[in-house]
């Protein structure tokens, strides 16, 4: 999801269309989105504003870094335990 662009998401048809350039096998991949994922993406879009990235850094022109995402994940895991 790091580096995912809003233009890859078709919220009307509930699909994430991962372009061939982002795939290891260099073929486009279509991911159907659940209602829960779609609702989260719609809410996230309001937070992201005009950024082209799904998950953005403090600078909206940059995607979130691996370290920030890992830190966030670690906090979530600790809270669940």
Report on the structure:
With 81 residues, the chain is α+β, with helices and mostly antiparallel strands. Helices cover 36% and strands 12% of the residues. It is built from two helices and three strands, in the order E-E-E-H-H. A three-stranded antiparallel beta sheet has the order 1-2-3, with no helix packed on it. A hairpin with a 4-residue loop joins strand 1 (9-10) and strand 2. It is globular. The two termini are 24 Å apart.
Question: Can you summarize this structure?
Answer:
With 81 residues, the protein is an alpha+beta fold. The chain is 36% helix and 12% strand.
Task: Give me some keywords for this one.
36% helix; three-stranded antiparallel beta sheet; globular; 2 helices; single chain; alpha+beta; 81 residues
Specify the helix fraction band: 25-40%
Q: Note the main sheet.
A: 3 strands, antiparallel
Alpha-carbon distance between the termini?
A: 24 Å
SSE succession: EEEHH
Enumerate the strands of the largest sheet in spatial order, edge to edge or round the barrel: 1-2-3
